[in-house]
Amino acid sequence: MQTAIGTFKLALDAGLKRLERLAGMHAFIVRDFLIACIMTLIAIGSGYLYIMLSKGIFQAVAGDWQAAELKVNEERVLLNGPQGSFSFAVLGDMRWESPPQIAILRDAQQRKPLFMVNVGDVVNSSRKVEWEKYLGELAVNWDRDIPYFHIPGRHSLDFRITGTYPASFQNLFGRTYYCVDVNEWRFIFLDTSKGSIPEQQFEWVAKRLDKAAKGQRKI
Prior knowledge:
47% of the residues lie in helices and 14% in strands. It is α/β, with parallel strands linked by helices.
């Protein structure tokens, strides 16, 4: 009986030691696997960061590099329109290819609108080189006798580690939401670049609608 018990204890001890060795091996395997994953992520992240830095994706466009006629600093712009009917042009989501942007702009201007508004996405990733390219093309093709307003799209936003901001857009074009009054008409331009309208903007809209009603303006 004692011999059997002793044999069982020896077998149990051997089994436990084997389990400990296997557990240790698995621990090393898991550790090495995690280290490999972390190193891979670091390598990929570093490469992506290098690409973004080399392309200038983190460079906000300076506020003094722009056409002053494009910048809106006030929440209300007043335009003098003709008595009776008038037209305006809405240009939107032209993306970042030069030929369609220029063709659409020229076509709109040939129709002689009172003003034009671009509702966003004239660049791909809000890089400095893209904004400079866009403004350079505007300098050649835009008829400055026709006011041209801009509001930001999703591609107009600057992406930073601390969040997403319309910094370059604001430096170039000023406010991201505002209204334009023409005679008895009020045009309200909103910023939906982040996919929703913040509460602060809703409150601003409510005030503008109330003032429009008191002033007998049409929306």
